[in-house]
Structures are given as C-alpha cells and as structure tokens.
Amino acid sequence: MLPLMGRGLGVTAGLAYGGDYNPEQWDDDVCEEDLALMREARVNLVSLGVFAWSSLEPRPGEFDFGRLDRIMDGLASTGISVNLANATASPPPWFSRRYPESLPMRRDGTRDWPGARQAYCPSSPDFRRAACALTAAIAERYRSHPALAMWHVSNEIGGHNALCYCDVSAAEFRRWLRRRYGDLDDLNAAWGGVVWSRSYSSWEEILPPRQAPSPPNPAHVLDFRRFSSDACLEVYRAERDVLRSITPSIPVTTNFMVTRFVRDLDYWDWAPEVDVVANDHYLDAADPDAHIELSFCADLTRGLASGGPWALMEHSPGAVSWQPRNVAKAPGQMMRNSLQHVARGADGVMFFQWRASPSGPEQHHSAMVPHAGVTSRKWREVVDLGRALGRLGEVAGTELSAEVAMFFDWESWWALETRPRPSVDLRYLDVVGDFYRAFWEAGVTVDVIARSTDPLPYRVVVVPALYVVDVGAARRVAELAANGASVIVTFMSGVVDESASVIGGGLPGGFRDLTGALVEEFHPLRENEVVNLEGGGTAAVWAETIRSDGAAAVDTYADGPTAGGPAITMREHGDGAVWYVSTRTDRAVTSRVVRGALARAGVKPPIPMVTAPAGLEATRRSGDGRSYLFLLNHGDETAHVRVSGHELISDRPVTGALGLKAGDVAVVREDGG
Ligand code: GLA
Ligand code: GLA
Question: How many angstroms separate the CA atoms of 180 and 186, rounded?
C-alpha cells in the first residue's frame, strides 16, 4: 500500500494538472510545441481525444490510429500521463445518417437533428453498439501504452440529451417501471392513477411524460427523471465495462456536472460506479458571489467521493463561450478558483481546454494556451499555477473533516420544480444556497450528504427543501436530534414521499413530529412581495400558517398573509434542538439561525472568523499527522491571520501573523500538524 501523502488520485504524483487536449484540431508542428509548453507549465495529465470519434473512425468500422499513436508516444516521452477518452461523446455524421432513430426526441415529439455533439438517445441500442465497438478498439490499441493512466468515458454524459422521449426510450421506461413496481396495480396506486382518470390497464399504455393538453402527473415525471438518469448511467456502465474487461487495472472516470446549470443526473447513484470522482465546474458570470457557489459544488463533489480525493476535470482558464455574457476572469482569479477546489478536497486541477480552438462552436472559449499565445498574461498565470500546484503536491491524499452536514437531493430538486407547483419562485438551489452561504460566511466547513446517508456523526445538520423524503431518512434525522445535534429544517421539506404523494396527517408530514410545527396552510407570496419579521428582518417567496405542537416561536411574521403567526420555531430534544424555518429569510436572519445552531452545538471554524474580514475562506486538509490550512481572500481588504508553519506556494516559513492581500491565496503546512 502506498503512503497516503502525495498519493491523491493515484494517477499522477502529487496533484494532477492539465486539461482537455484535442490535438486532432492542429498540425504536427503545433503538437510539438504543445509538448514543450506543457513541460514549461508542469502539466502532468491531459484528457485526450474526448471528441475524436470522427478522426479515429472516419467511416463505419474503419479505424485510423496513426495520429493518436504519435501523440500518445510524444506525451509518454515527455512524462505526461494520459486520461484517455474512449471518444464516444460525439457520434460522427455517418452514425446519425445511418441510424436516424438514434437521434433524441424532445417532449413535444420533435427530434433533434444531427449537427452538434451528443446527438443520441441514451437508450439507443445502435449508439451503444457503436460506442462499445469504438471503446474496445481504443482499449485494445492502448492497453499497454506507457502514457495511459486513466480512462475518460464519454464526456458530461446526459449534458444535452438526458431526457429523451422517443419510442425506444418509452419501451425502456416501461421495462424500468416493471422492475420498480412489478405489478401494474402498484404503479397505479403509487402514481394516484385515479386522479384525472389516469389508471393504466396495460403496461403498453404508459409513455414518457410527453407534451399533453394539461399538466402532467408529478409522480410520472419523477419516475421518468429517475429512469432518464439511470438510462444515462447505463450508457456509462456499458462503455466502462468494455474498458474494465480489457484493462482491469486502469481506473475509469467520467466527468460529472455538479453545477447549477445541470440537474438531470442523480450523481449519488453514479458515484459508486466510477474509480475516480471527477467534476466539471463553471462559474455563473451573472452571479457576484460565484465563489460561494463554487465552494458548494466542490463540497458536494467531495460528498460524492465519500470524503476521499476527487478531480476537478474541467473549469475554465477565463471566459466560457456559452453564457449570455461570457465574462473573463480577473488577474489571479484562475489561481484562486483552482486552489479553492483543492482547498475542498480536489487532488487534480484540469481545464477545458489546453489550446484555444480556431474553429467550431467553442472558438471563443478561453484556453490554457490562448489565441494570444504565450506572451499573454493568461499563459504566465498558467505557468504560475503549475508551479504552485507542484509545490502543493504533498497535500494530495489529505482530507477535510466537518461537523456540519447538509442534505442535497436531486429527487427533491426535480420534484419541487415540476409544474404545476405552488409558486414559480420556489427554487431548490435558492434554499440550499441561502443556508450554505450562511455557513460559508461563518467560516464553517460543510459536508454535503445524500438523503440515504446516516447523519449521526454530525453535530449540526441542515435539511433544506428536502421535499421528497422516505421513512428511513425522516427517522435518521429524528434520531440525530434525539442524540443532541442541532437540526435546521426549512419550508418545503418532508412534504411528499418517494411517489411524490403528499405525506398524510398534516404537513410537513416527514418532519412534523420532529419540528413540533404543523403547517396548516401554504401562503406563496406575490412576485417581489417582502414580509417583515418581528425580530427585525424580512422574508420573501413563501409564508406558512403554523400551529405550534411543541415548538416555540423564535421569530414571528409582523405583516403579510400570516401576520402574528410563527415564522421560525425551535423545539428542544434533550441536548438537541430543531429549528423550522417556514419562509425564505433574508441573509441576516438566515445567518442568525445558523450561528445559533452552531453555537448550541459548539462548532467552530478552523480559524476564528470574528476577526477575519468578509470574503476570507479558510479550510483545513489533514492526514498522516500533517495539516494544511488553506486561506483564500475573496474580499477586497488585506486579511491578517495568526498561523505558524510553512507557506507552500511562496515556499517560506510563516510565524505569527500572515497578511493575505485581496485576491491572494496561501496554503500553510501547520506546525505541530
Ligand atoms: C377547473 C377544473 C377542475 C380543477 C380546477 C382547479 O375548474 O374543472 O377540474 O382542475 O380547475 O382550479
Ligand atoms: C463542458 C464540456 C466541454 C466544453 C466546456 C465549455 O464542460 O465538457 O467539452 O464544452 O463545457 O465550457
């Protein structure tokens, strides 16, 4: 067994650094230069050939590996490891022409045309056959190549095509439902088929929730979403199994999209199927606090990796090319974003992409080697980042530990936002994000956990808009409170069961006894309506009529439709306490609830944030008797932090106070572990 320190992902020494490398877009002399530049930047891993299908198999069954052979050899002789794609992300034009039924279908029954990447139905047997054949050909060719370190299956599977409504998908959906329910009567009961006369008399009548004259059944939609995530996972598994059969000892990954932009895949189901959890993360240029969202996604990815090492497989060196306004990164921001992921457990920092594409839809996307070439600031920053990551190699394999956990549940995201719903302003990520931000600002690390995870080890647990809840999850949260933890439950938690049926006996059925607060009625607020709270703050989006059943009011609605009634309640359970927050409270109020829960549970941040200026982020990674304090200054004043140890990026000792300028990052190997 290798020592923990420096092991990390197990595919490179120290931290992995590099990006998507698409050499089929350039001539040999450019690729020669690439190798020299990669060496200069200390790149040690590239994701190669992600979109190379039409270059590798220009005609059905006719393979051409000559160019890829040379690239692989060049990388091997430069000492760069390869995360080799099986190149199935974008079926070539010949494939779509030959198999027009493989094209994905939208909800309204129109088919997408070929013409861009990922133009396939996840359930298409023709696609699966062709993809597995290509995978086998690549794996056979490179199985013993010295550069091969890891397999990169497809690319962001389901990113564009997760929900396919075609007849092939319909047949697969029915098979999936038969496995789930076995009996048609059970399906009818679970779905509430009697409502609107939707009881099925034969399996063949069941279709995907295609465009219909009136709103769909939420249970039908939820199962279709589960099926669609599983159908994409089947594509991954089929390709992965080909790789495993040919190279059993090479790790296999695929890049997840844990981001606010994509919600179609339930990655809790996917994570156990990969050898290395890898994520792609892109900032939302319109979000002024995108660095907090970045932390959340990194924490969620670490959760998917069960706390172990994971790879940031893609982020952007600067602007992306697919948002309405593709804002470039400020000087130093690329370093800060990169090390923020490392601060939260990433053992690899990779980019899309190595060299900017002259043509194609991503020609205006930033790259490590920009159109401006190597006399640019971007390139200097790429080299600096490579040097910094090299110096941080010893943190690879160390882990974070947290006393706070927050549930994250794709099913709740799907179900809460399925129309018809009580308010279009109910957005799952808003509720999750509000509470995450409050912990972030309190400087406390949060583990993000699945609904199926036992939260017992944590001192503080947040249940934000956990709309779908099963009996087991509700019981585990209740046990937690009985054990002395602080629990925060928000509105729209525990409302429906796994069949999207309202849990009986009064809302919120899943957590009613635990919170001691019975919701008599929902009061969605009007657009932009704000209500005042007696405690001095405000709230928006939502209000509720609450009848206390053992809980005390912590704050009360001062006006609005529920004036005079409780807005936030608290119920003691021995040493534990459960807060119920019935509305979307403003930042100060949310922060007060969170700090109250932290104080009661005695949870403190890694450095005292009371003295730290706003925007300072601190995390600690440790293992094997060493510990590393990551400090990132997202604010605009210098931060002074008391630390003692060795700062790794500048490679110098620090004793006493460290001054961290606005925008800067420090990583301190702490004295005494
Ligand atoms: C109409 C329909 C009812 C019901 C209500 C809901 O009146 O006839 O079946 O859907 O709308 O507001
Ligand atoms: C995704 C894809 C990449 C590229 C980037 C651009 O992450 O996986 O191929 O398109 O977006 O931001």
Answer: 10
Nearest atom within ligand 2 for CA of residue 282 = 12
Predicted confidence (pLDDT) at residue 351 exceeds the cutoff of 50: yes
Percentage of the chain lying above the pLDDT 70 cut: 98
51 C-beta closer than 6 A to ligand 2: no
Task: Say how many Å lie between the CA of residue 156 and the centre of ligand 1.
Answer: 41
Q: Any bridge partners for residue 627, and if so which?
A: 622
Query: Residue 669 has which token pair?
Result: 């190997």
Sorted by sequence, the CB contacts under 8 Å of residue 285 that are 6+ apart come out as 319, 320, 323, 325, 326, 327
Nearest in space to 50 (alpha carbons), one of 339, 274, 440, 357: 357
279 CB less than 6 Å from ligand 2?
A: no
Q: If you measure from the C-alpha of residue 217 to the centroid of ligand 1, how many angstroms do you get, rounded to a whole number?
A: 15
Whole-angstrom distance, CA of residue 568 vs CA of residue 67: 64
- Maximum C-alpha span of the chain: 76
Q: Is 351 in the pocket of ligand 2 (CB under 6 A)?
A: no
pLDDT for the residue numbered 115: 94
- Tens digits of residue pLDDT in 400-445: 999 999 999 999 999 999 989 999 999 999 999 999 999 999 999 9
For residue 208, what are the CA distances in angstroms to 95, 124, 484, 497? 25, 15, 45, 21
H-type helices in 159-279, by residue range?
A: 167-181, 184-191, 218-246, 267-270
What average pLDDT does the segment 245-252 reach?
98
Cα distance between residue 299 and residue 296, in whole Å = 5
**Could you identify the atom of ligand 2 that is nearest to the CA of residue 322?**
12
Q: Is 280 in the pocket of ligand 2 (CB under 6 A)?
A: yes
**Cα gap 516→546, rounded to integer Å:** 10
Ligand 2 pocket residue status of 350, Cβ below 6 Å: no
Alpha carbons 371 and 365: distance in angstroms, whole number: 10
The answer to whether 277 and 300 are in contact (CB under 8 A) is no
Whole-structure pTM value: 0.97
Q: What are phi and psi of 398, to 5 degrees?
A: -80, 160
Q: 494-549 pLDDT, tens per residue?
A: 999 999 999 999 999 999 999 999 999 999 999 999 999 999 999 999 999 999 99
Q: Which residues are catalytic?
A: 156, 314
CA triplet 615, 660, 391: central angle to 5 degrees? 110
H/E/C letters for each residue in 124-142? CHHHHHHHHHHHHHHHHHH
* Distance from residue 108's CA to the centre of ligand 1 (Å): 24
- Looking at residue 4, its pLDDT comes to 41
Task: Kindly compute the dihedral angle of the four CA atoms of residues 177, 183, 185, 188, in this order, to the nearest 10 degrees.
Answer: -10
- From the list 20, 12, 5, the residue with the least C-alpha distance to 356 is 20
| Ligand 2, atom 5: closest residue by C-alpha | 352
Q: Output the residue whose Cα is nearest ligand 2's atom 3.
A: 352
User: What is the rounded distance in angstroms from the CA atom of residue 481 to the CA atom of residue 503?
Assistant: 21
